Structures are given as C-alpha cells and as structure tokens.
C-alpha cells in the first residue's frame, strides 16, 4: 500500500471521501422510491409535485459527486502508476552491475510494464471500488434497519454465506496469480529474445522452429492466466447465485408483510431496491478481495526492489564530490574473483598500470581479460585483493567517480534509438571544439557526409541503420569526447576493417596523455612496438 500511494495520500483520501459520499447518495434512492409510491397510493397530488423538484435536485447532486469521484480516481491511478514505474526503473538502475546482470533485462521490463498494469487492474481499481462499496453497504444497512429489522437479519444471513466463498478460494487464487506473473515474465523474456534474434532466425531459416517455441510459451502463459481466471469464475458464479437467492427470499417475506399490513407498498419497493444494493457491494468486494490479496507477492517483490538503497545512480552520487586523481596509477594486487562461488575466473592478478602508458592485454578466449577490466570499472565489490587508483580502493568509489577516470569501448556497442549526436554526447554538453576533435579522432567525421542528416541522422534500434564499423566509431567518439585519463578498448575495433581498426588504434596510441588498455586477440604487428607493455594472461 505504501509502495502505491506513498506520495499520493491526499488524492487517495479525497477519492475515498468522494466515493463514500457518492455511495451514500446512491443508497438514498430507495427512500425516494418509497416516497413516490406511497404518495401515489395515497393520491397526494401536492406531495407528488414537491417530490419532482426534490428528485431533480438529488439527480444533479448525484451526477456532480459521481463526476468528481471518477475524476479523482483517474488522477490517483495516473499518479500511482507513473510513480511506481519511476521507482522501479530507479531501483533497477540503482543496482550494481553484478546485481543487474543477475536477472534478464526482460524481467525488469516485465516489472515496469506488466506488473504495474496488474497492480492497476487487480489492486488499485479494486481497492477504490471496495472502499466505495463499503460506504454503500453501510448506508444501505442503516436504511434497511430503519425500514425492516427482519429483512435486515435475512440479508445478513446471506451475506455471511457469501463471505465463505472467497475465504475458501483466496489462497489458491493467490498462488495461481503468482504463477501467472512468473510465467508472464518468462514469456516476455522469450519474446524479447526471439525478436532481438531476428537476424539469426532469418539468416539460419529457423522461423518455423522459433514459431513453435513461441506458440508453446504463449499457450503456457495463456493457460496460466486461464487457471487463475477459472477460480475467479467459480467465485463469481457462486456469488451471483447467492445474491439472486437472497433477493427472492426478501421479496417473498416483504410481500407477506404487505399482505399482513405491516409495511406499505412503498416500503416493499424500497426493500427490494435495497436488497439489491445490499448484496451488490458485498458481491463486488468478494470478487475484488481475492484479486487484491493475489497481488501480495507482486507488491512484495516490487517493494523490495524499490526499498533497496540504490548503490549507484544520480541519487547516490552527488555531483560536486571530490574528483579522483590518476597521477600515481592503478595498482592491482592479488586480485581474485569468480562470478560464482568456488569458481574463480581471476586467481591472484598483480598488475601496475602507469599513467599515460599503453597496455595490450592478450590471452586465450575466456581467460578473464574482460572480467579484469570490469572489476576496474566497479562491476563488483566482491573481489579479493585490491584495485586502487592513486591509492583509492575501487569498492570505496562510486559510479560517477569511476566514469570520470575510465571509459570503455566494448566489442558489442549499444546505441540508443536517437541520433548520432545524442549517442556521442549522452545528454552532456560539450564545446564545438571538443565535439570536432572526438569526431575526427574516432573516424566518425569520415562518414557523416554520406548521411542525409549528418550528425543528426537517427541510428535506429540499437544503431541498425549504421554499419557495424560506423557503430563502433560512434562508440569510440563517445569515449573520446569525455577525455577520461584511462581508456579501455575491449575488442572495440573488431567490427571495422583491418585498415580502419589499425588507424583508430594508432590514433589512440598517439594520444600522449591517455592511458590506454587494449584487449585484443589480433595484435597488429606494426602496432606492437608502440605499446609500453604487453600483458599475456594465458601465461
Ligand atoms: N556474467 C557472467 N556470469 C558468469 N560467468 C561469466 C560472466 N561473464 C563471463 N563469464 C565467464 O568468465 C570467464 C572469463 O570471461 P571473460 O569475458 O573475462 O574472458 P575474456 O578473456 O575477456 O574472453 P574473450 O577474449 O573471449 O572476450 C569465461 O569463462 C566466461 O564464461
């Protein structure tokens, strides 16, 4: 609950109050019906015309309250879903890289899209409705007690029967809702995986095979929802049956009371109308209560994510904190690390990286070169040994401090679906000169003329409108413009032709003030001697 309406208590209170007022006003219609029939039976024409004016005023008031209540509810839903999505996104971005990569990105996507939608439909809307129904129920109960205590007792008896049903089904429904949410996350992950693998699917003509897999996942997900819906259907039909039965009994008893002259015809009509609105709120609460309790596991999961103290991100990292220097260098001492416990990828690495020198990391595939550079950039705090920049341990530094020291150009470049300029600057401001320098040195300047909109050309989803080499040059420009003292090139020119790769690498090696670490499988012979040190990790 706190997760949903933390900041919106005011609007929640207003929605609840307006909902209650509108429900009480709606219950009052039974008294109006009673008066109309009794005045008509008595043949009181004067009283009849007065009633018409009263009814007109009542209808206008009912309409205005109903509108205000509906509007408030919509504002509440907009605010809550918006804040919830913000908080989930912030929670995900606040994870350390190690934690972030433990889950599939589609799981996060599913939380932001599917779980928030489930919370809106199965928790917030039912919650508002239930509050309104409680008010309607209490108002109806009060009028019923006033008109006929006997009918009230009969209705309460049916009410207790109606409460038994959701109490019996609630736990089972909760389990099925949870299973459905998990299935939905898996389905989203699979669908994302298939769509991202479009090129592979097409290239290897495995469309039929993938379609089968998709259908299987889709069927299982739809069945998961159906299993939960089946219980909802049982719940709803039992409740409907009890509600109808209660009205039949009430009409029967009330008609008998009219026969005996204990109540008027107007009261009979009011009682029939009230017995409908007496069971309706209970019915609605019964249908919605299991939905709300079924959301508990999802709310708990999101609460945990949102409650976690962000470990990185803008809230954690003040803008004006002390910058970390890189004058003495980077020292790695007995660094040990494994992604899984008991399975070390790095087993005691000692290394000294001096400022402004150029290093090449070589070694067999899978020997841990990338893992070592990931630790240098704050991927995990679980490493043993020490990694120190000018004597300052990496695990004591935050993301902003680290990214002011070090940039990485990865083998798999990620470009946002915006233009080249924004992919290079990433919302930071740089001078014309800084931009020009980065464009020239990365080689981006060389292909901008071929594009219709130059630097403002949109790159498409993950840069698919650019060639692999162009994407990599944009990534090089993105790293160079920041002028961090250290640059890691992790197979960062593997998508460009040998001549261009060589040119980019040579350019970087010529940057006198730059400390360069290149991870490569194919050391260009002509560049080998330009490196100050070749570190071979296979040894
Ligand atoms: N996120 C991860 N979770 C679990 N294991 C991982 C993860 N990333 C890498 N590994 C494993 O760690 C080992 C070292 O991987 P790493 O990427 O550091 O090697 P590398 O030397 O850079 O290889 P390459 O030259 O092929 O890029 C590999 O066995 C790999 O399977």
From TrEMBL:
Compartments, as annotated in UniProt: Cell membrane
KW Amino-acid biosynthesis (keyword) present: no
Any one GO molecular-function label of the UniProt entry: ATP binding
Sorted UniProt keywords: ATP-binding, Membrane, Nucleotide-binding, Transmembrane, Transmembrane helix
CDD domains referenced in this protein's UniProt entry, alphabetically: ABC_6TM_exporters, ABCC_MRP_Like
Domain ABC transporter as annotated: residue spans: 330-539
Main location: membrane
Lipid bilayer topology: Multi-pass membrane protein
Matches recorded under InterPro entries: AAA+_ATPase, ABC1_TM_dom, ABC1_TM_sf, ABC_transporter-like_ATP-bd, ABC_transporter-like_CS, P-loop_NTPase, Type_1_exporter
Domain ABC transmembrane type-1 intervals: 14-294
Residues spanning the membrane: 12-33, 53-77, 123-144, 150-169, 237-259, 265-286
Protein name per the record: ABC transporter ATP-binding protein/permease
Gene source species: Anaerovorax odorimutans
Higher taxonomy: Bacteria, Bacillati, Bacillota, Clostridia, Peptostreptococcales
